[in-house]
Amino acid sequence: METFLGCKNLFIRFYNRSEQSLQNITLSINKGEKVLILGPSGSGKSTLISALAGIIPEHVEAEVSGEVFSRKNGGVMFQDPDSQFCMLHVDEEIAFSLENRSIPRNEMDKMIADLMLQVGLNVDRRTPIETLSGGMKQRLALACLLALQPEVLFFDEPTAQLDPKGRQEIFDLLHQLSKQTNQTMVFVEHVLDGCIEWMDRAILLNDCGTVIADGKPKDILQNFQKEMEAAGIWRPKVFPEKWSEVVENTSHPISMKLSEKLETKLVNKEKGNNDVVIRTENMEIGYGKKTIVSDINVEIRKGQWVSIIGQNGSGKSTFLKSVIGLEPIKKGQLYFQHKELKKWSDR
Ligand SMILES: Nc1ncnc2c1ncn2[C@@H]1O[C@H](COP(=O)(O)OP(=O)(O)O)[C@@H](O)[C@H]1O
Ligand SMILES: [Mg+2]
Fold first, then answer.
1. Which residues line ligand 1 (CB under 6 A)?
2. What is the pLDDT of residues 180-220, one digit of tens each?
3. Is 52 left (phi over 0), alpha (psi -120 to 50) or beta?
């Protein structure tokens, strides 16, 4: 039988590297299969997807030996939502994909509306892409991908930049899609909860870029626990439920590592003084007329390490941009070293 998608004795080496990124990979993926590719960072997961999608060697040059059975019109969704768009507004971006299929202009409106509905992108079609949250951007990326009607959908850590809620929503959406279309899907993911349950198969790479396991997800989870742990792959149901257990148990290895790190930080911090570097008073931030966060009252001291957490779209990046003066604040005060930020010279 002809291989639908796969490779045989595939070796890939990038020209600027001495070692191979993929070593002797042989695999065959059937039409309609949902396959999860796992492995440590740098093990060649993205390289494998790029080869199967035909990006290597067509668009990214590398020394390739062996055989690749790729599909000409595979579509890839990447982890960084922002790297995938070239237009300003939602509808134009989808139209751009439709143009690739030479869809006449007068048929596009309905198709754009249908695609937005299908991926749950319930915003105005003229919404500027830069104002979408990470999760919404990934929905848009998926709409653009589906607009191309690819034979195979590739996903390269599509939720890596999303918060847990955004991640779950994207997994649910993709699961839904997999049931509706019976499309072939190849995934790279680190977080298994919410996606491994509906995969037909998992393939595990090691850090030399070789396949060490290929089979039913359940068997791989059972038989390759150590390898997966070493690779930093999140085992299902360990996080976040047991997170508190880890933190409360001071002899847990993760907990010990954490407190070691925190102690170094504290020692370093005590060496500095306690000067307030950044202070805000009822600061309100946003874009144009739109307020994103109001009444921000924070003090950040010299040497402090501060983590800003929140859902996708809650204003973390906007806060950073405002604090470094890239976005004007809308209300309130922002002081840098006790002087209002706007009174400092631009330099
Ligand atoms: N375009 C490239 N040029 C040179 N080296 C690359 C390129 N892409 C990936 N590599 C290298 O190939 C190896 C595998 O990378 P990658 O496929 O990105 O792994 P993963 O996706 O599993 O993290 C790494 O050593 C990486 O540095
Ligand atoms: Mg990768």
1. 14, 16-17, 21, 39, 41-47, 60
2. 888 899 999 888 888 888 999 999 999 899 999 999 998 98
3. alpha
